[in-house]
Write a structure and sequence with these properties.
With 188 residues, the protein is an all-alpha fold. It contains ten helices and no strands. 76% of the residues lie in helices and 0% in strands.
């Protein structure tokens, strides 16, 4: 299936609606399942997938996809679902996602996202690995990361409460994200 999806990107870019329909048909269920892991809402997941395909079609001439088209689909669905959750004003703490938005952005900005990485992030084992890695962080780093990630606190708010500089807060968050990314990279 992966190779089939990849070969359709150029056809979609050239305006082939049939190619888009075939990719949609092949990808719809796995993308909905992926989105459901962190939205916990079937309708929202389906809407995120449909919006992703609509945006791809509307912006096909301007889109530049580096790497895997399939990985791009997963990343786009991830982003659409998170945006929809934000619009619903869903508190981050109630979102049990396999990989937080912050971690996802860090990984995608520092590493090449491919099908293997997408599959790995999607797995329950990876969720457990991320949680284990977070728990093993040094005490101060753990506290700052939890305040940022689970309590949705700003860097300045964390710095004031812990009586440290904002740069210290940013450094600890960066170290936590880097540790998580390193563990994921080793597993990949």
């Amino acid at each position: 299936m992966n190779h089939e999806i990849e070969k359709y990107w150029q056809k979609i870019r050239d305006g082939d609606e049939k190619a888009l329909g075939l990719v949609f048909k092949m990808s719809y269920a796995p993308l909905c399942q992926y989105s459901l892991h962190f939205t916990h809402d079937t309708f929202l997941s389906q809407e995120a997938v449909q919006d992703t395909f609509l945006k791809i079609w509307q912006n096909r001439n301007e889109l530049t996809i580096r790497g895997s088209f399939r990985a791009y689909l997963f990343q786009s669905v991830h982003n659409h679902a998170l945006n929809a959750l934000r619009q619903q004003k869903t508190n981050r703490q109630s979102v049990n996602q396999p990989c937080s938005e912050e971690i996802w952005q860090f990984i995608t900005s520092h590493y090449k996202v491919d099908d293997d990485l997408v599959e790995m992030i999607f797995s329950n084992e990876t969720e457990q690995l991320i949680q284990k890695t977070i728990k093993e962080l040094p005490e101060k780093c753990l506290r700052i990361f939890q305040m940022s990630r689970y309590e949705s606190r700003s860097n300045s708010d964390i710095a004031r409460e812990l009586d440290v500089s904002e740069n210290t807060v940013k450094t600890h968050i960066y170290r936590a994200l880097r540790k998580i990314a390193e563990i994921l990279k080793k597993e990949n």
